[in-house]
Amino acid sequence: MIALLFDVIGMAGTFLVVGSFFLLQLGKALPTSLLYNMMNLTGAILLLISLCYNFNLASFVIEIFWIAASLIGLYKYFKHNTKPAVS
């Protein structure tokens, strides 16, 4: 039963990561958009969680890089889209 839970979490992560790539290719998301980076970050985190049950070093490493790239994208998004307060 617990294996099924981790499989569902991993599949949700897979759908988010692959789905974000499809949205990008279809022109429905920009690589600098909040949607694209949040989908990638969430998907990578879910995949990392699923790896806690069935560990695979190569998958673990790629998810760490995927999370790092998504966090960089989110940092750039918020840095670019945050307007300074007028005083």
Structural summary, described in words:
The protein is mainly alpha-helical and 87 residues long. It is 76% helix and 0% strand. It contains 3 helices and no strands. It has helices at residues 2-25, 34-50, 57-81. It starts with a helix and ends in a 6-residue tail after the last helix.
Q: Which percent range fits the helix content? A: over 70%
Structural class: mainly alpha
Largest sheet: none
- Could you say which overall geometry the principal axes of the C-alpha atoms support? elongated
Number of strands: 0
Mean model confidence by pLDDT: 95
Question: What order do the SSEs take from the amino end to the carboxyl end, as H and E?
Answer: HHH
Alpha plus pi helix count? 3
Radius of gyration, rounded? 15 Å
Q: DSSP strand (E) fraction?
A: under 5%
Low-confidence stretches: none
- The total tally of domains equals 1
What distance separates the N and C termini? 57 Å
